[in-house]
Amino acid sequence: MNVTRGRAIALAASTLALPSCSSSESLRVGSKNFTESIVIAEIYAQTLERAGFRVERRFNLGSTQIALAAMQRASIDLYPEYTGTALIDVLHHAPVSDPHASYEIVRTAFARDYGMEWLDPSPMSDSQGLATTTAVAKRYALRTLSDLSRVSSKLRLATIPEFLSRPDGLPGLQRLYGGFTFASIKSFDIALKYRALLAGEADIATAFTTDGAIAANHLVVLIDDRHLWPPYNIAPVVRGATLAQHPRVATALNAIAPHIDDATARSMNAAVENESADPADVAATFLRGLSK
User: CB under 8 Å to 187, separation ≥6 — which residues?
Assistant: First the structure.
């Protein structure tokens, strides 16, 4: 999945120097309706523009199902997707802990069933997680989910509703780790669970591991030491017909894939969510950094 940094930078630089696309047809890049998807989609869009393609942005579409339906209608040509989301929510497959195996399952199934191609995945994995403050982690000696399982009855959980019923949510934690019978559980909208944690209204919050709030608030993400959660590596999913017509799309996007890692994603998400930066500016800054 990874290539050396030097090779990737060389590929990225050569991609930016490719001649202009001869076709006047625009590539339509989509995204889901949350910060990270929009930022990554903007990176894809600007990368393709630098490679000579005309790009039409169709961001903020909605859920996975809406984005996938837009691909099937040919309303968009590509969008960023997560291997874990595709595996569990689209294919209804059991969680797979190995990132390479997970990627191969979704790559094969999407090509066969949907006529869509997965390009190279990035090392960034926006997996599920449980986060806490440094104070709570220190008080209860929390480093791993196994640690939490033993003291969960003393702690309050802030979560989103779906976590309570998903097989890789609370039921999965209870099955694999035991414990996880919290003193109280309250459900919040996705952004408000962190506010509850920081306000002292909860001790633990469900998280996605590249959330900007983690970096901004110096939160501790507990290690999934028994590997419940599958990897959620992000990658461009492209309509097969689009890729057949424009194979240079793969060359351009595969060149930047190795540079999108967890730390980079957290920093970009935090810039948008906490500093009100424009996703387009954040994406442009990221791409300029590749050519230095």
Answer: 159, 160, 161, 164
130 in helix, strand or coil? Answer: strand
- Contact (Cβ atoms closer than 8 angstroms) between residue 1 and residue 233: yes
Contact (Cβ atoms closer than 8 angstroms) between residue 102 and residue 230: yes
Q: Does 226 reside within a domain?
A: no
Instruction: Give yes or no for residue 26 having a pLDDT over 70.
Output: yes
Residue 227, in any domain of the structure: no
pTM summary value: 0.79
Among 46-60, 101-115, 156-170, the least confident range:
156-170
Tallying the residues shown for the chain, one arrives at 292
What's the alpha-carbon Rg for the chain, to the nearest Å? 20
- The chain-wide mean pLDDT, for the chain, equals 90
Per the CB < 8 A criterion, the answer to whether 221 and 125 are in contact is no
Select the more confidently predicted residue: 200 or 166. 200
Q: What are phi and psi of 54, to 5 degrees?
A: -85, 140
How many Cβ atoms from other residues are within 10 Å of residue 104's Cβ? 14
> Rounded mean pLDDT of 7-14?
34
CATH number, domain of 269, equals 3.40.190.10
Of the CA atoms within 13 Å of residue 292, those in its CB half-sphere come to 5
Q: How many domains does the chain have?
A: 2
Which residue type is seen at 215? A
User: Does residue 138 sit in helix, strand or coil?
Assistant: helix
> 69 lies in a domain?
yes
pLDDT per position as a tens digit, 86-95? 998 899 998 8
